Structure formats: C-alpha cells, structure tokens
C-alpha cells in the first residue's frame, strides 16, 4: 500500500550500512556537521558483506590493520578476522559515534532520479514493515552516496557446468550457503580457485571426509601471519595511539611497495609468489600444474590465507587439487576431460564467480534518462563519481590492495567537492568532459582484473582514461596526494540551477 505522508528531505543519503557506508557517515558527520544525513539499508542488520555471507571460514583477505577504520583502528591481534568479529567491530564503531542511530533498516532504494529543475534526487523506497507488509515512500536528497560495493546480493555469475542437473547430491553456491548444511564425513568438490575457494577448502577439510578443489586455472596464494603483535610490542615503549599509527603506516608502506613492485615487475613478482607457495606445499607437490597461473599477479586477485591454513590443509589426507576442465557431471561426481578421471562427491560447491554491478539493483536516472544502461560508456572521476551524474558518489575500495584505504580517500575527495559547493553556492556538481576532448581520450576498464566474473561485468562498470582526474586509483600515496592537492574544479561542472548564474 502507498504511504501518503509528506516527502522527507535530507541533505545526504547513504545507501548501504556496511563498512563503506559507516565510514562515509563518520566522515560526513565530522567534516560536514551542518548537513543532515541518513543511511538506508535494505537488510535487517548492518555489516554488509560480513552480515550477508555465511559460508564456512568467511574472513577478510587483507590485514585488519588496514582493513579497519582509520578513525577507530582494529583493536585485536587477529590479523585476518572472521565475519562475525568484523561485523561486531563495525557495530561497535558505529555505536561509538552515534552512527547506528542514523541507520534505517528494511529500506530498499528501488529507484533514484536526479531533477535538474529541483536540483535534488528523488528516491523511491520500498520499506518492509515488521508484519512483512511493504510500503512505498519517497525521500528527496541533495546528495546520494552509493556504498553497497560492486557485488550483487541477489544473483551470481551463472556457472556453465555441463551435466550439473544430473547430480543427485547437493549443489550450493557460497553466496547462498545453508548454515544448516551438514557436511561432516561428506565428499565435497569445490569448483573454483578464487578467494572464496581458498577460504572454503581449509574450513571444509576440518569436518569433511574428502575435499577436492577443482580449478580450471591456478591462482596465486600467499600466507600472512595469523596474529599481528606489532601494536602490543610497540605499546611497551610508547602510548598505544602512537603504536597504532606507526603500525598503520608501516603496513601501508609495505603493502604499497609490494603491490607496485609486482605490478611494475610482474616476472620478478611471479617468481617471488611462486617461490613462497612452493615453500608451504607438501614435498613433491605438482606446483607446475596446480600453482602456475597463466596470468601475472594482480591481473586477477591475489589470494591470501591466514597462518598458511590453505597450504596446511593440502598436507592432510583426503584434501587435493585437480587442475582440469569439466567434461560432465554425473549423478555422484564429476568427470574431467584429461584421462576421463572421475571425482566422486556428495556435495558440489560452485565458487565460480559473482555478479558485479556498481549501482546494485537501483534504477538510476538523470532527468528521466537511464544511467544503468550507459554506465559502461561513462568515465569515472577520481574513482568516486560517474560522468554526467550530479551529486552522486560511487564509493568502492581497492581491488589490488586493502579495501578501506581506497574507499576512505575517495570519500574524502567527495567531501572536498561538497565543501566547494558550500563555499561557492553551487547546488550541483557533475563530472563533465567536453565532446571535443572526450573523442580523443583513452578508454579502459575501471577494473583491470581478468577474472571471468570481472570480464563479464565490463559493460556494467565505468571507464577510466588514466589521465587527469579520470582515474580509479590503485596507489594510496598517489591518491592521497591527488586528494590533498588536486583541484575539485578539474573535470567537474558546477551549477547553481540558475541558467543565468555561472559558478
């Protein structure tokens, strides 16, 4: 039924109450305290990824010293934490700053239309009440921040697995994991070789009779220490706040150096990572077959595992890797093409990829013209705004480094834009490229990952030119420099809504 109450107006609406949305809220209320805001969350709890995903072993894939909030650092020694611990941490941080009171749960943003006449967004909401009845509501907002990441919660990349309908056991995708699934003493095949599969294998091996990771092509996997005792050690000689700051910067330094080394010297980086994997694997393991990717590190995501748990699992009987192509699925297993080998299974886990979309399921329009369908033709401005879309932030983190430093610097860049509007009286700000310049600009994907799911999403992702502000950013040092000293006028068109008034 329709809600006929007056339309609510806010300065800023944040969509998503995950880590990205909570971080954006903190930056807004501390740097723009005179602007009203609310966080709209479609689910019944905060946490985003860490509330949604339920598969065994779900954890961070980067060190928590960097993944945690810069304004309230991760307080525990566990370096790569599990989902429950991360969600609890996010909740504590939100409560400590009063951000939790700004969250409106069961509020799904179905559509968002920018009106140049009103100089505002009109959001169409679907609100689920306690009795399950849904209501519709409108909210007007000056700014809209999309903080839901780039993975869909509702759908996955459809896996093409010949004969999968023949299988008489259970088929499950990690995204829709059934927490009541009993896999003790079962034979399990995990199809895939990405971060999800790397996480699942050691966790499933704790109870399952047999776990086989069936991969079409290998991945790079590096082990990180399970505990980070740097802060505890440094705190013996200095205030904890100093120790935390030093630890953050040294972690960022080493991560940046490592990422840039591997990106700029891929052959040397490849030798280093393969050498590290070799030292962790069982003696005589077929490294050339199972851990020799065709691509360079960071062309697809480099996987990490805490305390080498992935490699330790491969020392156990009943845990193995098969690198081959699926010929067909049978009623009780999978036959691969090389030699017709059959892998028997009771459960098949399809960790084959996710569906990527930067605007989630929200239908976005500007003066009635659709944005979603043309987003693959639009450039991204400093990794945080989309060409031709006024007063809207698209906040995502790094893919080749820890997520949070990237999303934080992009949030701060947006705040610079809003502050410039406050100073000049501009009511709208939209990235803009003159047609004469646009025709000669390079056009590359916002994400350079070559994973199957990333390639499938190319048309749903904005473009980058690699010049000026038309970049996504992969280096925190460079991005912070650009944020601090770059001009918010470069590549941006400001307007007051009054055609006769120039900004």
TrEMBL record:
Keyword set for this entry? FAD, Flavoprotein, Monooxygenase, Oxidoreductase
UniProt xrefs under InterPro entries? FAD-binding_MO, FAD/NAD-bd_sf, Flavin_mOase-like
Q: Identify which cofactors the protein needs according to its UniProt entry.
A: FAD
Pfam families in UniProt: FMO-like (PF00743), NAD_binding_8 (PF13450)
Among SUPFAM superfamilies, the record links this protein to: FAD/NAD(P)-binding domain
Source organism, top-level taxon? Eukaryota
Which PANTHER family has this protein been placed in?
A: MONOOXYGENASE, PUTATIVE (AFU_ORTHOLOGUE AFUA_8G02570)-RELATED (PTHR43872:SF1)
Q: What is this protein called?
A: Monooxygenase
Q: Which organism is it from?
A: Podospora bellae-mahoneyi
């Amino acid at each position: 039924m329709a809600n006929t109450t007056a339309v609510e107006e806010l300065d800023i609406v944040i969509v998503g109450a995950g880590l990205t949305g909570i971080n954006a809220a903190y930056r807004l209320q501390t740097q723009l305290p005179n602007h009203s805001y609310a966080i709209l969350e479609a689910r019944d709890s905060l946490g985003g990824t860490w509330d949604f995903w339920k598969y065994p072993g779900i954890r961070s894939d980067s060190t928590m010293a960097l993944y945690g909030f810069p304004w309230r650092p991760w307080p525990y020694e566990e370096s790569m934490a599990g989902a429950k611990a991360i969600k609890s941490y996010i909740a504590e941080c939100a409560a400590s700053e009063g951000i939790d009171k700004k969250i409106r749960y069961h509020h799904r943003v179905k559509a968002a239309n920018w009106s140049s006449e009103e100089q505002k967004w009109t959001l169409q909401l679907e609100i689920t009440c306690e009795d399950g009845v849904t209501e519709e509501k409108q909210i007007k907002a000056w700014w809209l921040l999309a903080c839901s990441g780039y993975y869909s919660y509702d759908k996955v990349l459809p896996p093409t697995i010949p004969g999968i309908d023949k299988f008489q056991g259970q088929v499950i995708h990690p995204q829709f994991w059934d927490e009541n699934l009993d896999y003790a003493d079962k034979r399990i095949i995990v199809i895939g070789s990405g971060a999800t599969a790397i996480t699942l294998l050691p966790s499933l091996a704790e109870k399952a009779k047999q776990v086989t990771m069936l991969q079409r092509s290998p991945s790079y996997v590096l082990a990180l220490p399970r505990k980070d005792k740097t802060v505890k050690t440094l705190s013996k000689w200095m205030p904890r706040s100093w120790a935390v700051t030093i630890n953050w910067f040294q972690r960022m330094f080493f991560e940046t150096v490592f990422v840039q080394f591997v990106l700029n010297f891929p052959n040397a980086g490849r030798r280093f990572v393969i050498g590290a994997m070799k030292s962790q694997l069982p003696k005589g393991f077929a490294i050339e077959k199972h851990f020799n990717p065709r691509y360079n590190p960071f062309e697809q995501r480099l996987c990490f595992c805490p305390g080498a748990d992935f490699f330790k699992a491969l020392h156990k009987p009943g845990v193995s890797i098969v690198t081959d192509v699926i010929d067909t699925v049978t009623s009780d297993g999978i036959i691969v093409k090389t030699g017709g080998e059959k892998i028997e299974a009771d459960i098949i886990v399809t960790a084959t990829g996710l569906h990527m979309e930067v605007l989630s399921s929200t239908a976005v329009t500007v003066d009635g013209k659709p944005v979603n369908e043309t987003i693959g033709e639009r450039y991204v401005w400093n990794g945080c705004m989309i060409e031709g879309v006024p007063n809207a932030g698209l906040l995502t983190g790094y893919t080749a480094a820890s997520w949070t430093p990237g999303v934080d610097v992009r949030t701060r860049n947006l705040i610079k834009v809003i502050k410039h509007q406050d100073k000049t009286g501009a009511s709208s700000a939209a990235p803009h490229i003159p047609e004469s310049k646009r025709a000669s600009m390079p056009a590359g994907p916002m994400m350079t990952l070559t994973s199957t799911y990333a390639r499938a999403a190319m048309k749903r992702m904005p473009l980058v030119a690699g010049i000026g502000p038309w970049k996504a950013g992969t280096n925190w040092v460079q991005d912070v420099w650009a944020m601090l000293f770059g001009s918010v006028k470069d590549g941006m068109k400001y307007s007051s809504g009054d055609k006769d008034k120039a900004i």
